[in-house]
Write a structure and sequence with these properties.
Helices cover 38% and strands 11% of the residues. It has 2 domains: 157 residues, Rossmann fold (3-Layer(aba) Sandwich); 68 residues, Conserved Hypothetical Protein Ylqf, Chain: A, domain 2 (Orthogonal Bundle). The structure holds guanosine-5'-diphosphate. Guanosine-5'-diphosphate (GDP) binds next to α5.
Length: 283
């Protein structure tokens, strides 16, 4: 099944973003550390031209540490880019990010000459959480559901930095359905836009290839089944997602599996690696 997801208010974002970029010194692009490519917006790359950019690999607490290291090396190959893995809820991480902003543009950050920083990213990457932590208080609205954010606010961090939220929401490139399935697996896409069973099968197929032992151990399976459908069925049986007659309710099994996967219950998992082969989603 094809995933389509364009919350309406995202349409006019790009013109506003282009205008805003001219008035700032450092771009912070918030990516999901588990899928830095699929959670990026390639138009931002064009609009940024040569402005310094810090790519924050957020939700580092959920991502595979070895893969995140590889992503940092990969992203920093690009000129003007620094990559910083962090967890947006952690104050020490936010402080490290503030220091990196100051180091990136050392000639700004004085009275009358503030360091102007803007936070960009697709929905649900953790922008509001990061802004709150950087500001040290509850300024931006944090949502468990995708596509909730407060736009266009400016926060004086009182350390020479003026922090702004993006003036328009960016969105992922869902032309690439592999990226769309990875985003749905991560929880970034609104639940109404995809079929749980299809995404559950995609995620089971991915885990079977990349982290088979995690699945076997977490769900206490004697052996790992040899197809995504058989894995989802085994998970459903283990979690008691059954319908009358004792058959597995695949939709409920997929929901429960994705919930555990997204929350890091099956360990720290990255859904994509730099320069990796593509696994096709079930349609
Ligand atoms: P926004 O749409 O980009 O502003 O994203 P939010 O800040 O609303 O965050 C989306 C969801 O991700 C919320 O449920 C946050 O609690 C969660 N989140 C944000 N940062 C982190 C993080 O570093 N680790 C984890 N595990 N969850 C996070």
């Amino acid at each position: 099944m094809t995933i389509r997801w364009y919350p309406g208010h995202m349409g006019k974002a790009l013109a506003k973003v282009a205008e805003a970029i001219r008035r700032i010194d450092v771009i912070i692009e918030v990516l999901d550390a588990r899928l830095p490519l699929s959670s990026s917006n390639n138009r931002l790359e064009e609009l940024r031209s040569n402005k310094p950019c810090i790519k924050v690999l957020n939700k580092n607490d959920l991502a595979d540490p070895a893969v995140t290291k590889a992503w940092v090396r990969h992203l920093e190959r690009e000129s003007g880019v620094c990559a910083l893995p962090l967890s947006a809820r952690v104050h020490a991480d936010a402080k490290q990010l503030i220091k990196l902003c100051q180091k990136t543009v050392p000639h700004r950050g004085r009275p009358g000459w503030p360091l102007r920083v803007m936070v960009f990213g697709i929905p649900n990457t953790g922008k509001s959480t990061l802004i709150n932590t950087m500001a040290g208080k509850c300024m931006a609205k944090v949502g468990d559901k995708p596509a909730i954010t407060v736009c266009g606010q400016q926060i004086d961090l009182r350390n020479g930095i003026i922090l702004s939220d993006t003036p328009g929401l960016l969105w992922p490139d869902l032309q690439d359905q592999v990226a769309a399935y990875r985003l749905a697996t991560s929880g970034a896409i609104g639940a109404g836009a995809f079929d749980y069973t299809c995404v559950g099968l995609f995620a089971a197929g991915f885990m079977m290839q990349r982290y088979p032992e995690r699945i076997r151990e977490h769900y206490r399976l004697a052996e790992l089944p040899d197809s995504p459908a058989a894995i989802l069925e085994a998970i459903g049986r283990r979690l008691g997602c059954l319908i009358t007659g004792g058959e597995v309710d695949l939709h409920r099994a997929a929901e429960a599996f994705l919930r555990e996967l997204r929350a890091g219950k099956i360990g720290r998992v990255s859904f994509e690696e730099p320069d990796q082969e593509v696994v096709c989603p079930s349609r």
